[in-house]
Amino acid sequence: MQKKLIAAAIAGLVAVPALAQTNVTISGHLRAGYDNYSVKDCQVASDCRSESKFSDQNSRIIFNIVEDLGGGLKAWGQLDSRFTVDQGGQSANGAINWWAQGNTGMGLMHSSWGKVTLGHWDVYYNEFERNLGLPRAQPLQYNLGLGIMSQVATTAGGGATSTTVGTGTRTSNLLMWDSPNWNGFTGSLAYSTNPAAGANEGSGVTTAANSGNAGGGYAWTAAIRYNNGPWAAGYAHWSSESENQQNVAATGANVAAINNLRGDRIWLGYSFAMGLKLGFGYDWSRNDNGAAGAVGTTNQKRSAWYLPVSYSWGPHAVYASYARAGDTSNDMGLSTGASAWNIGYDYAFSKRTSMGIYYTALSNKSGGNYNLFSNAGNGSTAISSGAAGTTGLGADARQWYIGMAHSF
C-alpha cells in the first residue's frame, strides 16, 4: 500500500511554487529475519564453518515524484534508498546500503511513447525475478535467478574466481527507454557509459603509452516481455566491454581480466486459476576474455537453467525451485558446474505483511565456486578457501531462514 502525499502537505520543506503541480509518493518495505549459513564439503586444507545471525533483507524507502507538464507529458523522478533493520544505516555490505543506492533516476514519460530514464537502475540480471515471481518474505539468498543463474564460475589458471553477468545489482550511468504496454508486450533498451562504476570503470582519458582503451568501457542491454493473463514470457540480452586498461611501465600487459561479458536469457511462466504457478528460465553467458594472460581460460561460455514452482491457497503459499549451471568451457577441462534447490512456506497476515521459513542448498562440482546471491555482497561472492562468507572451490552452501516482510 502506498501513501500519497500531495505537495501542499510538505510545503514547509521545499518551495511552494516548485511543488504546485507535483505529487510525491512514499513507499517501501522492511524485510529482516534470522538465518543460519553453513559451508559443507570444504577443501582438504579448509575448515567447514557456519554462522547464525539476524540479517536485513533489502529494506528500503522510495520517494516518487511526478509533475504533469501538459499534453500527456510528465516529468518524473525516483529516489530509492536502503537502510538495514538489523544494524541501522549502512551495513557490512557498504555501498549497497548508501543513500539513493537503489533504483534512482529521473526523466520524462508519455502514454504514447513510453518512459525515458537517466540514472542508476535494475536491468537484465533481475528479469527472472520480476517476471516469474518470488516468495513474499524470502531472503535474498533464496533467489536462484539472481545467484547461480547470473554467475559464471572459472578457476582462472587454478585460482577460484566468479564473474557476474549484468553486474548483479543496479547499472550506473544508465540511459534507458521503456516502451508503453502494447496488449501485454513491453520492451526496454538501455546504454551505460560506466556500468559498474568501479575502480577500473569510467576512469577517464589517458595519453600514457600502452594505456589500452582506458575510458572506453560501456554496456548495453535490451529486453522484450509478454505479460498477459496467465502467461509470462520474454527475452533479454546483456553486452558489456571493460576499460581494457594496460600496464604502462613495461610490456603493456593487461593489469586485470578484461571480462568482456555477453548474456542472453529467456523465460516462460504460467499461472493456473487454482493457485499453481510454473516457470522456466534459461541463461547463456560468455566471458570473452575471462582471464587475460591465463592459458586456457579465455572466451569462456556457460549455460544454466531454472525451474520455479509455487502454489498458494488463501493466506498460505509454498514454493520450490531448482537451478543447474553447466561446466564453463575453456577452463582447463575442470568440472566447474553447480546445482541449487530450495523450498519455502509463507503466510500472509494481510496484503502488506507476511512471514515465512525457507531453506536453500547449493552444491558445487569439484572445480565450481558458485555461491548464494548476496551472501557477502550483491552478485557473485569472491570465492576462495577460508574467506569469510564464501564456499571455497568445490564446497557447498546451505541456508535456513525465518523472516518477516512489511510493505508500505
Task: Provide a short characterization of the protein structure.
The protein is mainly beta and 408 residues long. Helices cover 2% and strands 48% of the residues. The protein has helices at 16-19, 127-132, and strands spanning 3-6, 22-40, 50-56, 60-70, 73-82, 104-110, 114-121, 151-154, 161-164, 171-178, 185-192, 218-228, 231-241, 261-271, 276-287, 300-313, 316-325, 338-348, 353-364, 396-407.
Largest sheet, in brief, is: 16 strands, antiparallel, barrel
Alpha-carbon distance between the termini?
5 Å
Determine the strand fraction and express it as a percent band: over 45%
| Helix and strand sequence | EHEEEEEEHEEEEEEEEEEEEE
Secondary structure category: mainly beta
Can you describe what's shown?
It is a single chain. The chain has 408 residues and is mainly β. The protein has one domain (29-62, 113-407): Porin, CATH 2.40.160.10. The chain has helices at residues 16-19, 127-132; strands spanning 3-6, 22-40, 50-56, 60-70, 73-82, 104-110, 114-121, 151-154, 161-164, 171-178, 185-192, 218-228, 231-241, 261-271, 276-287, 300-313, 316-325, 338-348, 353-364, 396-407. The strands form two sheets. The chain has a 16-stranded antiparallel barrel with strand order 2-4-5-6-7-10-11-12-13-14-15-16-17-18-19-20. A two-stranded antiparallel ribbon has the order 8-9. The longest helix has 6 residues, at 127-132. The chain is globular and about 65 Å long. 38% of the residues are buried. Mean pLDDT is 81; it is low at 1-20, 199-203, 245-252 and 376-390.
